[in-house]
Specification:
The structure holds two protein chains of two kinds. By secondary structure, chain A is mainly α. Chain A has ten helices and no strands. By secondary structure, chain B is α/β, with parallel strands linked by helices. Chain B has a single domain, classed as P-loop containing nucleotide triphosphate hydrolases (Rossmann fold, 3-Layer(aba) Sandwich), CATH 3.40.50. Classes of the chains: A mainly alpha, B alpha/beta. At the A-B interface, helix 1 and helix 4 of A face helix 2, strand 6 and helix 3 of B.
């Protein structure tokens, strides 16, 4: 049953122009556009544009897929009544959830490969096998973190319009304060403040360091790990609260 | 054979009590209309029967199993035997009609042939139409086709004919009554169309402000002096 559900979940994703544009078209195009502007610069850790921004844009795709095609989709199904109709069918919530998670992993992995290939072809990006394996492992972990946070956030939305506005605004905020557009240390002070509380910024910094074999357990990385951990714990509490509230209805 | 037995059912949303002690029963093969004003508690009552809503007071037995005492597995087994047309009718909007039927066939592990259902419900012209692009009437027909695909022992319909033109309404009722005669399945429905209740329902439950004021056969209601079920309804809700 999971295979059938997954097949149709992927089919539905491919038919949602809004999802495809925001997740699989905008990030790679922005990656190429930014590269044409700032490709020759050197970034923190003495990294080239491709070394610094390839993991960033992979993470941006992951964020887009998980927030739009997983979280926002949940709101759409809940508000429109689809969730209620599916709940009535003898298919377990677990099957629907596992299929949703697998869908996200497949699409984000496609994004991972897609952006990496662009990096290889356009910016001569190279890989070191050990770093590549560790990066993919962290990428899966970040996928799980984003799935939990997105489920928790979207469980509170009661209208599609509210969720849509939130999604678009969040995408912009994440783009500019997550270190995906320009280095945060070159941004105004208020952007740096927002970045410090943006979990995507911390995930991005960790992902860049692991991708390039520069990860070390020091103050900055520990703060990022602790902050992401805190966000996951809060999200799990929120999810538990939302689930209890819904089952009491 | 008793399919549904409800005793002393109460349901509240926060401080507002919407069902105030409902007693109800349905036998195999019954067609029962649940009528009442908007906000009388009809949809809540049906959603409890559909295992979609919880309740704290009273008992609800479906196919002999009390819902509050049922495990997740037992609830799954109950859901296997019932199906519904909900209000509003919604399915995955970017799936085509044929894809929806195939997906739900897997959900219900249905032995029925999807192509036969497509033919029975005259859905061939809409085979490749996205659910979202169908008219309201065809959405209802697709919903009903999916409900029948489940080969249910009990069918619950929440205002199934609302917004349909007379032709579509007639078509929908033909399918419902055929199903009822052919399989002996139980049908419980809500509607605001009293002519439909008079024509097709064996029994009627009138809900008023969460209370089941009348639960009787249409025949006995008419014999008690009302010109029609419409007349009965207007008189009762005006009290």
């Amino acid at each position: 049953m999971i295979a059938t559900q997954l097949k149709y979940d992927l089919l539905m994703f491919s038919r949602e122009l809004f999802y495809v544009v925001f997740t699989l078209i905008v990030p790679p195009v922005t990656y190429l556009f930014m590269g044409s502007l700032y490709g020759g610069f050197t970034y923190a850790g003495n990294l080239s544009y491709a070394e610094s921004y390839t993991p960033s844009f992979i993470l941006l795709i992951t964020f887009g897929v998980v927030f739009f095609a997983f979280g926002f989709d949940q709101v759409t199904n809940r508000v429109s009544g689809v969730e209620k109709r599916i709940a009535l069918a003898p298919v377990s919530r677990r099957t629907i959830l596992i299929s949703g998670i697998l869908k996200s992993i497949i699409i984000t992995s496609f994004g991972y490969i897609f952006v990496s290939l662009i990096g290889v072809m356009a910016y001569d990006l190279t890989f070191e096998i050990n770093n590549a394996l560790q990066s993919f492992g962290l990428f899966m972990l970040l996928n799980a973190v984003l799935l939990i946070i997105s489920s928790a956030i979207y469980s509170f939305f009661k209208t599609i319009n509210g969720a849509l506005v939130f999604s678009i605004v969040t995408f912009q905020v994440v783009l500019f304060t997550g270190g995906f557009a320009m280095p945060i240390d070159r941004m105004p002070a208020f952007v740096q403040t927002i970045a410090a509380v943006n979990p995507l910024y911390h995930m991005n910094q960790l992902f860049i360091s692991v991708w390039n074999g520069q990860f070390q357990l020091e103050r900055t990385s520990l703060i990022s790990l602790a902050y992401i951990g805190l966000c996951v714990i809060l999200a799990l509490f929120a999810l538990r609260f939302a689930t209890r509230y819904r089952s009491s209805m | 054979m008793e399919i549904v037995k409800v005793e002393g059912l109460r349901k509240s949303y926060a401080a507002k009590e919407v069902l105030k002690g409902i007693d109800f029963c349905a036998e195999a093969g019954d067609i029962i209309g649940v009528i009442g004003k908007n906000g009388a508690g009809k949809s809540t009552f049906l959603e409890i029967l559909l295992t979609l809503r919880s309740y704290r007071h009273g008992t609800v037995h479906l196919f002999g199993q009390e819902l509050n005492e049922a495990s997740e597995k037992q609830r799954g087994q109950i859901r296997q035997q019932l199906s519904a047309v909900l209000q509003p009718t919604q399915f995955y909007r970017t799936l085509k009609v044929i894809e929806l039927l195939k997906l739900f066939k897997v959900y219900y592990k249905s032995p029925l042939d999807v192509e036969k259902i497509m033919a029975d419900f005259k859905l061939d012209d809409h085979r490749k139409t996205y659910f979202d692009k169908l008219s309201g009437g065809w959405k209802q027909i697709v919903s009903l086709a999916i409900a029948f695909l489940a080969a249910p022992k009990m069918l619950i319909l929440d205002e199934p004919t609302t917004g349909l033109d007379p032709h579509m309404r007639n078509m929908l009722w033909t399918y419902i009554t055929d199903y009822n005669k052919r399989t002996g399945g139980t049908v419980i429905l809500t509607t605001h169309n009293m002519d439909e209740v008079e024509l097709y329902c064996d029994r009627v439950m009138l809900l008023n402000d969460g209370v089941a004021e009348v639960f009787d056969t249409t025949g006995r209601i008419l014999e008690s002096g009302y010109k029609s079920i419409h007349d009965f309804y207007i008189t009762q809700v005006a009290k």
